[in-house]
Structures are given as C-alpha cells and as structure tokens.
Design brief:
The chain has 12 helices and 12 strands. The chain has about 325 residues and is of the alpha/beta class. The chain has one domain: TIM Barrel. The longest helix has 22 residues. It starts with a helix and ends with a strand.
C-alpha cells in the first residue's frame, strides 16, 4: 500500500472506525483538581499566555499532528492553520515523509499563506532517520516553512502495519544529528512514553517531549482497521502508558524539559489536570478532524470552547497562569 493510500485510509478509520482505546483510559479520571473557593482571584486575571519554542502562544495548546498528502489533507490543514492563527495557538503538521517521497504532496502541507505567525511544527518518524539525514531534515523544515521539527517514535504502530520496524541504533543516529538549526521535539503517537523512554532521551538537546499517552486514539487500532477492515487483536491494541502516568514518569526523569501532554486530553478540565500533573502544554488531534472538515470557523469554535473550559478550571483552582496549576491536583478517593 502506498503512503498516499495509507494516509487516506487513516483518515477514513479516524472518521468512521472504532479507533479509540476501549479499555485503557488516560488515567486523568483518577485525579481531581484541588478546588479553591477563596483564592481571591478574578476570572479576568487568568492569563493562558504560554512561551514555547521561542514564540508566545495565547494558550498552552497545540493542534496535534493529523494528516497531509492525501486528497483532503490540504483542506484539513488549511482550516486548522487558519483556526490556530486566529486563536494564537500552535500547530503540528502530519508526517512529512510523503513530502520527501513525493514532492507533489507539498501543497497539502503549505499553510503559511493563512497562518503567517502561527508556531508551526513539522513532523517525521524517528525510524525515517535510517533513510534521511541532516540535509533532508533541514530541507523538510524549510519546505514547510516550519519553526521546529517533531520526530515521532511509534514501534507498536509500525509493527501492526508491518512498516518500519527496525529501531536499532536510532537514538545514536539522532544524537549524532543534534543540534539542528531549529528546535527538535520527540513524541509518541498515542501509546505513551514511559520512564524508561525518558531515561533513553535524557541528555539529548531536545526542545520538548510529547508523552502522547494511551487513552485517546489507539494507532494500533487505526492500523488494524486499515489493514483488515476490523480490529483482530484488541488486547494488543490496548498496549500503552496511560497519559497521566506518562506525564508523571517523564516529568520525574526530565524535570527541566518542556512537556506536552496529548493522548485523550479532550476537555479543558483534562487539560488543567495535565498541567497540574506536570505538563507545560496540551495537544489535541482527532476531535478536531470533523470540525476541520467543516471549515476554519468550526475548528476555531471547538478550540475556543476548550480553552474557555481550561480558563475556568484554572480560575477554580486559583491559578492565574498555566504554570501555577502545577501540583493543584490529588488522587480521587477510592481510586
């Protein structure tokens, strides 16, 4: 199956298939925010502004990586980029591998015309470092007019799709490539980074890490939908580190590295919990897919509602800024 056809089927699966984790949850439901009735704070004082990768975001929010290259990719990416520009949040593009393989796919990733100021993050699989070198990475970022590059690590997804399954020596390859002339992030795709993964990353000059925990979209389930038209190995597809656990484990090992929480962080209250547990930003992908197909206005409305819930949650715990939410959380009784 070509990369183009796989991307098209990924979108179909995410729109119509049962691709969310069925048993594994984010773990965020095991925590509750510490409500503060006498904070003496005004809602108007809550400022979501967040510095990240040399830019100032109006909220600690990234549109997560979704697509590009297939027939709806340009439509989706332009709508998301326009929404990001309007709201002052960041955006991560889908995997740019197809751009390196098929230059004609570039058009669906070119969003600067509608988002000249937005923080834009290019994206490529860590496994592709076997094929592509320093000049290729620089060329990808330049072609996409991106500000940074995320390298995603996804061994379970690749194994299920029978894709790039040789991850030997990739960290050494990455270490040899760094630093690059732009910020570099490492992320999972939705099955989570563990304490052991964080230890493997320790010492690398990374700009940020995205834990991309389990509990949202299972990309193993997506790949089984694409490959078989059904999920044949449901227990295998439930593997992963729940998002809340991933935040705690990675933050403990990498206390100074900016941390993005994604993977089922689908409400503003969940976002506040993620910030309280140690994240600096959150990212959301699949829930924005349908709004993006409706257009930029619908995508912006979804994000604006999410951010208003986050603002209210921070107000309720007495946090004027996202960083002040840190620690304002406790385990729910009985869990």
């Amino acid at each position: 199956m070509s990369t183009l056809e796989r991307k098209r089927k990924h979108l179909e699966a995410c729109l119509h298939g049962e691709v969310a984790f069925q048993k594994t949850t984010t773990g965020l439901e095991r925590f509750r925010l510490r409500y503060q009735a006498l904070s003496g704070l005004a809602l108007s004082e809550v400022d979501l502004t967040t510095p990240f990768l040399g830019k100032t975001l109006k909220a600690p929010f990234l549109i997560g990586a979704m697509t590009g290259g297939e027939e709806n990719g340009e439509r989706i990416n332009l709508a998301l980029a326009e929404a990001a520009e309007a709201l002052g949040v960041g955006m991560m593009l889908g995997s740019g591998r197809i751009v390196l393989e098929r230059p004609e796919a570039l058009r669906s990733f070119q969003v600067r015309k509608v988002a000249p100021k937005v923080l834009l993050i290019a994206n490529l699989g860590l496994a592709q470092l076997r094929r592509y070198g320093r000049e290729d990475l620089i060329r990808l970022v330049e072609m996409l007019e991106a500000d940074a590059l995320a390298l995603h690590v996804n061994p379970l997804q690749e194994a299920v799709q029978r894709g790039d399954t040789d991850f030997r020596g990739l960290l050494a390859r990455l270490r040899a490539l760094l630093p690059l002339p732009f910020p570099v992030l490492v992320k999972e795709v939705g099955h989570g980074l563990s304490r052991e993964a964080a230890l493997a990353l320790k010492g690398l000059p990374l700009a940020a890490v995205d834990v991309a925990g389990a509990g949202g979209t299972s990309w193993a389930r997506v790949e089984e939908w694409v490959r078989y038209g059904e999920v044949r190995h449901p227990e295998l597809c439930e593997m992963g580190v729940p998002t809340a656990q991933a935040i705690l484990e990675v933050r403990e090992v990498l206390p100074e590295v900016p941390l993005i929480a994604s993977g089922g962080v689908y409400t503003g209250t969940d976002a506040a919990k993620a910030l309280a547990l140690g994240a600096d930003l959150v990212a959301v992908a699949r829930p924005l897919l349908r709004p993006a197909l409706m257009g930029a206005e619908a995508a912006a409305a979804w994000i604006a509602d999410y951010l208003e819930e986050l603002r209210t949650a921070l107000f309720a715990v007495g946090a004027r800024r996202p960083v002040e939410a840190r620690g304002k959380v406790e385990a729910s009784p009985g869990l």
